[in-house]
Structure formats: structure tokens, C-alpha cells
Amino acid sequence: MERPRADLVIEHASELLTCRTGAGDLVGRVRDGAVAVAAGRILAVGTADEVAAAVDRTGARTIYAAGRVVMPGFVDCHTHLVFGGSRVDEYATRVAGGDPAELAGRGIPVGIVGTVGQTRELGVDALVGAALPRLAEMLAAGTTTVESKSGYGLTTESELSLLDVNRRLVEVQPVDVVSTFLGAHAFPPDVPPDRYVDLVVAEMIPRVAEAGLASFCDVYCDEGFFTVEQSRRVLEAGIAHGLRPKIHLDQYSRTGAAELTAELRCVSADHLNFTDPEEIRSLAEAGVVGVAMPGLDFAVAHPRPIDVRAVIAGGMTIALATDLCPGCWLTSMQFVITLACRLHRLSVAEAVRAATLGAAQALGLADEIGSLEPGKLADVLILDVERYEDLAYRLGRNAVATVVKRGRVVVERA
Length: 414
Ligand SMILES: [Zn+2]
Prior knowledge:
Elements: E1 8-17, E2 29-38, E3 41-47, H1 48-54, E4 61-64, E5 69-72, E6 74-76, H2 88-95, H3 100-105, H4 111-120, H5 124-140, E7 143-149, H6 156-172, E8 176-184, H7 193-210, E9 216-221, H8 228-240, E10 244-249, H9 258-263, E11 268-271, H10 277-285, E12 289-292, H11 294-299, H12 308-313, E13 318-320, H13 333-344, H14 348-355, H15 357-362, E14 380-383, H16 390-393, E15 400-405, E16 408-412
Parallel strand pairs: 1-4, 1-5, 6-7, 7-8, 8-9, 9-10, 10-11, 11-12, 12-13
Antiparallel strand pairs: 1-2, 2-3, 5-14, 14-15, 15-16
Zinc ion binds at residues 78, 80, 248, 323.
């Protein structure tokens, strides 16, 4: 029988994690594991013996992963990657117990509106330039797919520009960027709220959809931000234009928008700090993925961090993300795993699963990425540790030695 030809084989890993759907241990651990790749996709995965028997490796590059862990690339399913400037002054003031309002009085950027000001000053090229080093850091830390939201423009032209940056980023570096329209991130100071919602619904969403610039439409539903009714208008307009719904839900208050989220079958509900157990169950029944962002709760010293165990107990599939933004300058999913395990009582297996397949589900991409299974994209990490639990155990270090993106070695650390 003719065996399919591989162009890359990674073999003899001390542990290979498939993170496949039905894995009883959540991570699908295989000892002395191997993965074979052809034309950017996974050809075979299993023990080294199984893979050796399944593929023709004539001419294939071989990477020996003895003493190392091999696993799927991380999927970061919630970021605000594209922005101008920095809010380091605000952060330093807050950690010291100071009042950021005093900074704003001196013209120093504070909050979303502060970042909007810094972002509007930059053109597309400068915004690409600002995002690239952040993406490079993410890739070096093992992230192979990143979701990226607009939302620091808040005018039609600037929101379109931010989404155009997402499109440009895909062309100039290896990480896949999934684009989300978040015009409903905050209200611009110079437009009345309902007028702004009209603008998002009647002008921005049709133009975003027409230009094919986003896969998802998101809304920031919370006290002081978009109401449940305004969120409904935004998400329904998105759906009508082919943009799948996502929602920032209950980060600082219980909004009651869980019902809307379940009704519209949002792909994900993100934050969930104040969502109650009954609402969690209804979201689970609607198939909504819960996105936890322990880094954000940590960075803002959130008074009520998400109770991830309750979300899991309620039956929701859980995903992890960095929430990279000027208020939470975090690029490493490994750090997120550390926080999820220590502060939110996830097992390391649960956290790894949530950072790979769970996050792929939060992007509706579980058929393509998030696990090592034949036919999926060959997004593969090699870690310089023998056991995957070291990801949570060894604090604040980068365990990623090699990153394979779509079958190509794109990071190789000596
Ligand atoms: Zn967010």
C-alpha cells in the first residue's frame, strides 16, 4: 500500500498532546509521540512507531523532540491587538493607589477614550508597525492564531482602518489573525449614545461586511457602556450582514444580557465576572463558549475575578485568552495558563485545553486549529520541558523552543 509522503516529522517527544475533541484526559497525552506534516497540514499523529508506519518520510525533515513536549499552537481568542500609544502612566498610577482622573486632567491618556485619541493619530502603516512587535512576541511565546478586535477608532473611517490593519498583518507575518469588528467598544465623547449606535448599525456594519474586513461582530455590554437593547441592535445588524456574534458580557456588572447572548447563539461570551449560575447554564445549553481572561482580571486587580470553576460546573466549554490591550499588556498564553491554574483552580490539563481547542471553538475554528489531528493545520509547538505541567509550574518563563506554523518552522530558539 502506498503511504502518504510527509515533508516534516517531529518524533520521540517525551509527551505529545493532541488536545483532540474526545480526549478523556483533555490533553490527549501520548508518550514517545510523533506528528507528521505535509503541505502545511497534519498527516498523522500518534506514537513514534505508529507515525513511522503510517507515512513515507523520504526527503522529509526530521526533528527529534526527545525530552520535550509537542503540542498544538496556542489560540488567543480575545485581543485588542491594534492600538496606538501606551497607558503605562495610568497603570503605574493605579498600582500605586493614585487617581487616574488627575492624569486625564493633565492630558495624559486614560481609559479606552485615551487610547482612541492615540490611535486616531496613526495611519494604517504606523498601526501595523505598532502591532507587529506585539504579534512577534505572541508568536515567540507559542501563539499561532490571534483574534484581533477593532474598537479604538469609533468613527467609520478609523474603524475600517483598524480592520484593514488586521488584513495587512496577515500578509506580513506568520500568525493567523481573525478579525472582529468592535465599533461598539465605547461611546466617542462627541456623539450622543443612540446616534452612535445608529452609526454602528446603519453605516459601519454594512461597510465592514461589504469590504469583507471581519468575521465577527462584538459589543461591549456593561454598565456605562452599551445597554442590552443597544447590544441587541448591534449584534442583530451584524448577523444580518453575515458577521457572527460575540459579546463582552458582565465584566463589571450583571447586565442580564446573558439571555440575549443565548437567544442569538453568540459564538462566545467573554469575561462573565457577574453572570449568575442559571445564566451560565442557559449559555451552555445554547452552545456559547465562555472566554476567561485571568490576565485582565489580574492587571486591573478586578474586585470580582471570573469564577471559572462555576462556569465549567455550569456546563460551558471554557476558552482562555490574553485580552491584550493597553489596560492589560499581555502577550503570553503561558502566563495566562499559570494564572488560570493558580488563581482560578483549573487543572493544568483544563488550562492547556482551554488555551488550544477551547479557544479554537471560541473562534468557530475547531475544525481547522486547536488540536493535533489529521487534516488540521500543522500549527505545532515544541517545548523545552519534559512534562506539560511545567507550563504552569515554571513561573514566568518561555518554554517554547520551536514554533511550526502551517507546516513551516517559524521560530527556532537555540
Ligand atoms: Zn475585550
